[in-house]
């Protein structure tokens, strides 16, 4: 049997050094999985980790989308492209991740479903924040967080501010493209409504991609993210249908 000797340069004493586990806070992270079924149901761990890892990836997605929004405000569109490409890959990963949960059968899920109580992904603060940042706003969703003042205030701030797409339209207006005034001065708490009066501006951009390269590429990135977001939501819906059918979920 081959035996690999430790290289002399490899550090093995971490009594006074930061280790991999220290940097990532792995002891705390790996101690966050607490199935409530009694006796513990084998598949509840899958359910917990599926949703915890989704929240971690959504945390990164929020981090990236908020950075992109700030860059658009600063007229630095080209700096957004790598960020939004990363967001698309996070969305792809979240889409594929549902395949793991699909290994849970309806009969297995029902054995621990009761311990979930009324907890549901519907209550995900990060998911709502992403929705609002992308322009799918609904003030009624604030009520879900009425018992948590900090989360309620954070989500309300996103609701009342321009979305990433709104900021893109403001950018186009600053650069001389014919954006209708009703798109620039509106109630940001309302979901964006399609406006046919935007067509002339986008015709200019798409007819002249070299002249308006940054605006063109940003539009394509936003379309990518919107499409990926719809696919992610659709995959979620189909996974839920597969596991619980058309019954009401925990939310």
From TrEMBL:
Alphabetized SUPFAM superfamilies for the sequence: Indolic compounds 2,3-dioxygenase-like (SSF140959)
Keywords, in A-Z order: Dioxygenase, Heme, Iron, Metal-binding, Oxidoreductase, Tryptophan catabolism
List the Gene Ontology MF annotations in alphabetical order: heme binding; L-tryptophan 2,3-dioxygenase activity; metal ion binding
Which superkingdom heads the taxonomic lineage of this protein's source?
Answer: Bacteria
List the InterPro entries.
Answer: Trp/Indoleamine_2_3_dOase-like, Trp_2_3_dOase
The record's Gene Ontology biological-process terms are: L-tryptophan catabolic process to kynurenine
> Could you tell me which Pfam families the record lists for this protein?
Trp_dioxygenase
Q: Which reaction does it catalyse?
A: L-tryptophan + O2 = N-formyl-L-kynurenine
Q: How does it assemble?
A: Homotetramer.
| Name of the molecule in the record | Tryptophan 2,3-dioxygenase family protein
Organism listed in the record: Serratia marcescens
